[in-house]
Amino acid sequence: MHIVACIKQVPDTTQVKIDPETNTLVRAGVESICNPYDLVAVEAGVRVAEKYGGKVTVITMGPPQADSALRQCLSLGASEAILLSDRAFAGSDTLATSYTLAQAVNKLNATEPVSLVICGKQAIDGDTAQTGPGLATWMDYTQLTYVVEIIEVADGFITVKREVEGGTEVIRGKLPALLTVELELNPVRYATLPELVRSLRQEIKVLGAKDIGGEPERYGLKGSPTSVKQIFAPPPHGGGKVFETASDSDKVIEDFLSTFFEKESSILSEVLSSDGSDHAQEQ
Amino acid sequence: MKEAFDVAIVGAGPAGTSAACILAGAGVKTILFERGEYPGAKNMSGGVLYGQELARVLPDFAERKLPIERNIIESRLWYLSKEGGYNLGYRDAIFATERKHNVFTVGRARFDRWYAEQARQKGVLVVPGTVVVDLLRDGSGRVTGVVTGRAEGEVTAQVTLLADGVNSPLAALTGFRREVKPEHVALAVKEVIDLPAEVVDQRFGVSGGNGVTTEVLGDIVGGMNGVGVLYTNSASISLCIGANLADFATFKLKPYELIEEFKQHPMVAPLIAGGKSLEYVAHWLPEGGYDTIPRLYGDGYLIAGDSAMLFNAPHREGSNLAMASGRMAAETVIEALERGDCSRKSLADYGERMAQSFVLQDMKKYRGFGPFLHHHKEIFNELPRAATFAGREMITVNGVSKREKQKLIFRNARKETSLLKYLKLLWSGWRAVK
Questions:
Q1: Closest approach of A73 to chain B, Cα-based (Å)
Q2: CA torsion sign, A142 to A147 to A150 to A151?
Q3: Which domain holds residue A10?
Q4: What is the per-residue pLDDT across B36-84, written as a single tens digit (0 to 9) for each?
Q5: HSE toward the beta carbon, residue B89, CA cutoff 13 A
Q6: For residue B106, what are the CA distances in angstroms to A186, B44, B72, B213?
Q7: Between B1, B127, B153, which is nearest A200 by CB?
């Protein structure tokens, strides 16, 4: 069985900053990592291949630096890695990205037919969760999203457990199928030394737009109807007002209450007067 | 792992990577292990490197896009009291032209990564994210390779080079070096302060990618045996302060308190004003000196860099000695492999090379420097106080005659400590560094 895992190299989002002037992500000096959901996808593919026989090919679309993320996937047991890298792909939104990946999967289909494509649920930088479903749509594959368990692959069908609102459901779909997976599907292994060494040495196949065919106007910026209007960090919450109690405590309490009730001073005066009368009655 | 290598190197810092570059250049099959996620991820250094030694490993380093922060054209030495201090510096235009890259600052996370990449391009198998947890030995105790923390993680090699730094768990486990004693290491903390390049230029009076290093002595380390440094990077300033680990225990001081006070010192504060702290790291420095160097070689192994306690404390040179020792280890190994003999006897040449080089000669020269500082804490207490009094008196214009001021200064200095002690200090200081 030929399994394809699609991955994305993302900035380590714990370090990402937004440039306050240009409203764009500051990527300079930020480490890139393999999207954590995608590592789970690769691991899932390798587990299926180990259980039922077959091999895993990892694909990513990105700049040449995505090499390191692909190597990490190879160290987990993927057999081959393909980097889709071309100036023509620059500026892709999720539609163009899924189209590009689809052309690559089509190309693989010509020589080694693909039975299963596995993607992470979403990338931690964009959080759209659109590329996997988009790819399934382009390929007309069975689409199984938010998978938390792969139960069985047999007789041309796959059975998975997926997360749905308020619970889980077990469904069976025809192969070829595309899964998008949740983090809890399986832990990611710590590569053995021989596998790590292989991943460091293996050649990564680089394919451009010409190599995978397809319609040029569907690639990159031209094929991307989405445009980002603005990115901004939410304004920081201002600190709360501090009421110093050192001096006149009655005044501080009054200040606090009037701030607390803000403009509804009528309520405040009612509360204060009724409180006073209660007090008198008690006496 | 079934595959065998000629040389296995533990640690992709300056020592290990220098050795790897030279070995691969000679066609030796080399595997280089780094425990960090990438080379440079786990270390710390003030960030000063030296071009001459780097050129002996990579003669064309300047053309290889070496990630330099600033080329150093001025070295300053400060002697500080709590409130002020003396500033002695030397700047020379020759260091911007003819002797460019004599000394330069680097960010080690970027430099080490770049350096390991050069080794990889020369054919070294660089394996990051992998900890060497033990050494392989044969029946006779000869080192025959390494054991990593990964599954199927044993690798055999004819020679193993240990370059895993000062804080080496391998050393403790295998006993190739005595466990470090607190008095033999300094604990240093470093903070990198983010500032625009133009601001760094203005504050240090430099331009065109040039910079300044400042070594700081005196009453800044709470009376302990310690120093501070202040280095310029392209768009940040590295502040580092540290003291002997045993002193930290005795004086019950905390490293972060030292650096906070250092940052508020009137000589330091204006230089870093408005800057944001980018990173905060801490590390040991092997400052035990010549007498703490372990046996540098044995059957099937050699030790280089901080692992071998190679550090020139008075000149703050560590990476330089690491690179030189890595280079000499590699040169020794190349010859030993040609002879087909990697026994202790065959590797003894490493000891010879080291003894004849500046590495061990400098360390021998300053053999007594550590003990000198340890026994003369007045350098960090009474002396800076007396010096401050002198500086203040001489500069204050208040109608008192200069002769009278001299008398005052002299009397104050005698009050701080006895004349005999000053003489002793001078004498033993001279003996420690002569």
A1: 14
A2: negative
A3: 2-218
A4: 989 988 877 778 999 999 999 999 998 899 999 999 999 999 999 888 8
A5: 17
A6: 41, 11, 11, 12
A7: B127
Residue B314 contacts residue B225 (beta carbons within 8 Å): no
Give B37 to chain A, closest Cα distance, Å.
11
A264 and A163 within one domain = no
Let me know: does B241 contact B180? Beta carbons within 8 Å.
Answer: no
C-beta separation of A144 from A119 below 8 A: no
Q: Which of A202, A218, A234 is the last residue of a domain?
A: A218
Q: Cα–Cα distance between A213 and A204 in angstroms, integer? A: 19
Number of cross-chain residue pairs from A and B with Cβ atoms under 8 Å apart: 33
Complex ipTM: 0.88
SS3 B167: coil
Domain identity same for A177 and A257: no
Cβ contact, residue pair B127, A191, below 8 Å: no
Q: Do B148 and A194 touch (CB under 8 A)?
A: no
Q: How many other C-beta atoms are found inside a 10 Å radius of the C-beta of residue A246? A: 6
Compute how many other C-beta atoms are within 10 angstroms of the C-beta atom of residue B63. Answer: 8
Regarding pTM above 0.90, the answer is: no
pLDDT value at residue A279: 47
Which chain A residue has the Cα nearest residue B151? A192
Determine contact: A28 vs chain B, CB below 8 A.
Answer: no
Residue A230 covered by a domain:
no
Whether A191 and B3 lie within 8 Å, measured CB to CB: no
Decide which of A218, A240, A268 is a domain's last residue: A218
- Let me know: does A130 contact A98? Beta carbons within 8 Å: yes
Whether residues A270 and A134 fall in one domain: no
* CA distance readout (Å), B370 to A101, A147, B313, B390, B429: 63, 62, 8, 28, 11
Share of residues in chain A with pLDDT > 70 (%):
85
**Band (B173; pLDDT cuts 50, 70, 90):** confident
Flag whether pLDDT at B24 surpasses 50.
yes
Do A171 and A261 reside in the same domain of the chain?
A: no
Tell me whether residues B1 and A190 touch, CB distance under 8 A. no
Nearest CA in chain B to A29: B110
Helix (H, G, I), strand (E, B) or coil at B203: helix
What pLDDT digit, counting tens, does each position of B413-424 carry? 888 888 888 888
Instruction: Note whether residue A153 is domain-resident.
Output: yes
Overall number of domains in chain A: 2
Q: Is residue A233 part of a domain?
A: no
